[in-house]
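Protocol step 4 of 6: structure prediction from sequence.
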Amino acid sequence: MKEIRRITSELKPSLTAANKRARVEYALMHLERSSLTSQGGINPTFRADMDVVHIDEKWFYRTRKTQNMYLSHREEAPHRECKHKNHIQKIRFLSAMARPRYDAQGNCVFDGKIGVWAYTEWVQAKKKSQNRLRGAWELKPCDKVDREKSREYLVKYVLPAIKEKWPESDR
């Protein structure tokens, strides 16, 4: 008698020849030039890339429909509610980080964390509610993030943070 077994089948991207070529070119771009032309054969090594800042954007839901929690016997489960489960607000974050730096003794002199910023904007309330008056300023997540908004955040937040936090020795 055959057993029934559980498997997980992952969907893998179908790469075209152009995609594969672009991946190889990207990898070659990060190799040390001197290691490719060394004596005694090819011994490729990757560059340290200590002067590269990685920037990433990510959407997050403000809350989940179902959320697992671990409570002690003395705690009550929190009351969570929203207007409609299918209209949970999303917020977008921008993060920047680089490679960490260590001194000769192995102590961390720069952890590589530059910053995380939420795409938000101050808007005036259109209606009066029990929490605020009409026209009061409130902080809301941006509905759309386009090229201009991304550029604004790079110039206003990311570049000053890099200048402030980057190690003096590598400037």
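Step 5 (inspection) to follow. The chain has two domains: 13-47, 49-170.
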